[in-house]
Amino acid sequence: MVPYASWLSSGDNAWQITAATLVGLMSIPALAVLYGGIVQRKWAVNTMMMVFSAFCLTLIVWVLWAFKMGFGQPWIGGSLHLLGKPGTVVGSGGEQAQANIPLVSMPHFRFPEGSLVYFQFVFAAITPILFVGSVIGRIKFKVWLIFVPLWITFAYAVNAFLLWGGGFWAGKGALDFSGGYVIHLAAGVSGFVAAAVVGPRLAKDREKAVPNNLLFVAVGAGILWLGWNGFNGGDPYFAGADATAAVVNTNLATACAMMTWIIMDMTFGKEKKPTFLGGVNGMICGLVGITPAAGYVNGVGAIIIGVVDSAVVWALFAYLPRKVWPFNKVDDALGVVYTHGFAGLLGGLMVGLFADPKMIVYLGIGKTPPATTAGLFYGHPGQLAIQAGAALTVIVWDGLVTFVLLKVIGLFMKLREDDAALVAGDIVIHGEIAYPMEEPDVEPAFGEIPGEPVPEEHHHHHRGGKVLTDEHSP
């Protein structure tokens, strides 16, 4: 008996499953802990519930129909290839046969279909989880449970097929190495539209948006950063030189972006102080910005993308919410449209500038040339226009789908929790609170609400967090 099929490479398969697990850790626990630490104490449980439930729901619809819509045989659009045909991957073939994306021309996969399904699932799952941050603190939990499977079906699967499954934009040569458009631009746009449709948080909550645990934010941010090694390093689908380049570029861009944001805070910020939340925003801008470019640019390109992405998003964060409609009207609670939407858009466009043809994704043999790409600064100006077209498609389609889905759901139930639930938070919605040891045994004093932080004058250690929160946007 033999443990390996003739086509299977144990190294490639081991890396693909490991990379997928690293990406899974970016959702659970990283984003549950990161977002759960940033929000007010009374929303920590709700945040964790939304993250974990989205992870579950995405996997269920992914294996039943959505994976094939993104990575299967063409179904809608004829020769335009707009969407794949729904189908299941729960049989033995869906788990153990050789992986295959019918429309994509590349070396034959050397791992099973199950590894591809799971790897692409964790990418799908993190996308709605990212835009939890836009609607936290007011969206009804039941609405979230209905919305996520529908959004994965009608928005994410379409993005994936168009750019990664051999669909329309893939055929035009659009480059999205690991999800700057399919994931981050999609999350930023969808989150912003959802925040607009659902409506804002309570005014009191917007004024007093104090993070409840910065140490948890640090834990979540650290897992998110290192999990990104699987996010970008797994996307060549082979444990080769391009995977290494993607990992190095990812960390390089992120380090430059985080320090850029910290220096911008110290130089131009309102308080001229380095803040941890600001640094995390910069870190995320770097991770997101390099994602569409990771295996296509060299180290110089990675540095430029990290610095430019972080600096531009810092400036947008400082200006748009104060001055420009609709950004000054929509309550995007954690600023997802900036750190994911704008950061992903900028990164995707910069691929069109800095893609280096000497960065080999797959080596050529015989008469077959190596697989490489080139941007404007390497002699291919048309790439920038292709990148812009793909971005526009994602922005329009995902914004439209999110708007329509929520409006239809809203015909049958209220999208927003009622004000009494918004005042109390987790204890009313879930019957749980994140920090029960801090709850008094007697009736709350000082006009407290269960699950709410003690007012500042009675709770001195919150003051440090207060400065950090107000300053996480410059």
Could you walk me through the main structural features you see in this protein, from its secondary elements to its overall organization?
- By secondary structure, this protein is mainly α.
- It has one domain (10-410): Orthogonal Bundle (Ammonium transporter fold).
- Helix content is 62%, strand content 1%.
- It has 18 helices and two strands.
- The protein has a two-stranded antiparallel ribbon with strand order 1-2.
- Helix 1 (10-38) packs parallel to helix 4 (113-130), helix 6 runs antiparallel to helix 8 (180-198) and helix 10 (214-233) runs parallel beside helix 12 (276-290).
- The longest helix has 29 residues, at 10-38.
- Residues 454-474 have low confidence and may be disordered.
